[in-house]
Amino acid sequence: MTRCLQKYRTGGLSSLLEINKAAGAKRKINDDASAALIQELKTGKGFSSYGGIVEWLKEKHGLDIEYGTVYALVRSRLGAELKVPRPQSYKQDEKLVSE
Hints:
Layout: H1 2-11, H2 13-17, H3 31-42, H4 50-61, H5 67-77, H6 94-98
């Protein structure tokens, strides 16, 4: 209550009605690294696992990021999925597969 009265005295009714939003935490992956990751995901080579992305960020950009953070970034913010072909048996008949 004391804070509200103090706010009213210093700024009036407009300062009481003002909605303040917290800034939040700073992103762990900077914009340069994020842009480079997008370019790397667009190439045909890409990554075979999210662990590979973690290692790539560590080697290329010196960022020590956790697996879960990388997964959330790639899936939620970037909307990308890792495209890895499913394993195929070497016993398959190639003629039957092509038909």
